[in-house]
Amino acid sequence: SGAAAAPLPEEDCMKLNPSFVGIALSSLLAIDLWASKRLGVCAGEGSAWGSARPLMKVIEVSGHGIPWLLGTFYGLCQSDSSAAREVLLNLLFALLLDLVMVAVVKGLVKRPRPTHNKMDMFVTISVDKYSFPSGHATRAALVCRFVLRHLVLAVPLRVLVVLWALIVSISRVMLGRHNMTDVLFGLLLGYALYGVVEHCWLSPATAPALFALW
């Protein structure tokens, strides 16, 4: 009829003319999903390394928050040294901060777990249905920095602590629990959270009420 065609909605224009940044992010996401699935060699009993799945699940438990919280609290109750209590109290603070921050980010991002993941994880809560970031990787990086900074260890033990953090992080992708970007961001977040713990370090001078409890 000669009438001018109605302009496309803005969101349709964006789909038809994606930006360079949008194309790059979509490509990186596709690579992340593809590589994570290929590396999920222990995601099921029938996977390439399915026989190693029980060992990977033991490693998974070693990086879980519940054993770390219970062990730290028990050590805090049993310790008779003021210096040890200070270190353990700050480790407990670090672990609680880690749980809160990971839960908040997971709740905001709401990235689903990889489709090849088996939901047979040890002690899960509501936000554990989400994938980003990896709480195990965050905790591993945080605990690794904390232990290396505040415990006097021989060089072989320091190396073992670093290897433990790396193995826990890698196992998350191998088990199919997380994508690679979940783990990488988790490691960065845990590294940064340690800086927060150091900045807010709890001591008898800064938090006398807490130390009075012990």
Automatic annotation (TrEMBL):
Q: Could you tell me the EC number(s) of this protein?
A: 3.6.1.68
Cellular component GO terms, alphabetical = endoplasmic reticulum membrane; nuclear inner membrane
Tell me the organism's taxonomic lineage: Eukaryota, Metazoa, Chordata, Craniata, Vertebrata
Q: Which domain of life is it from?
A: Eukaryota
What does the record list as GO biological process?
lipid metabolic process
Q: Its encoding gene is what?
A: Plpp6
What's its top-level EC category? hydrolase
Q: How does it sit in the membrane?
A: Multi-pass membrane protein
Protein name, please?
Polyisoprenoid diphosphate/phosphate phosphohydrolase PLPP6
An annotated Gene Ontology molecular function = sphingosine-1-phosphate phosphatase activity
Matching entries from Pfam families are given as: PAP2 (PF01569)
Residue ranges annotated as transmembrane are 88-109, 151-171, 191-213
Question: What InterPro entries has UniProt attached to this entry?
Answer: PAP2/HPO, PAP2/HPO_sf
- Note the SMART domains from the entry: acidPPc
Principal subcellular localization: endoplasmic reticulum
Question: What is the similarity comment for this entry?
Answer: Belongs to the PA-phosphatase related phosphoesterase family.
Q: Please give the SUPFAM superfamilies that the UniProt record associates with this protein.
A: Acid phosphatase/Vanadium-dependent haloperoxidase
Q: Which reaction does it catalyse?
A: 1,2-dihexadecanoyl-sn-glycero-3-phosphate + H2O = 1,2-dihexadecanoyl-sn-glycerol + phosphate; (2E)-geranyl diphosphate + H2O = (2E)-geranyl phosphate + phosphate + H(+); (2E,6E)-farnesyl phosphate + H2O = (2E,6E)-farnesol + phosphate; (2E,6E)-farnesyl diphosphate + H2O = (2E,6E)-farnesyl phosphate + phosphate + H(+)
Q: Which UniProt keywords apply?
A: Endoplasmic reticulum, Hydrolase, Lipid metabolism, Membrane, Nucleus, Transmembrane, Transmembrane helix
Stretches of the chain forming a coiled coil according to its record: none
Protein localization = Endoplasmic reticulum membrane; Nucleus inner membrane
Recorded source organism is: Machaerirhynchus nigripectus
Annotated Phosphatidic acid phosphatase type 2/haloperoxidase domain residues:
87-198
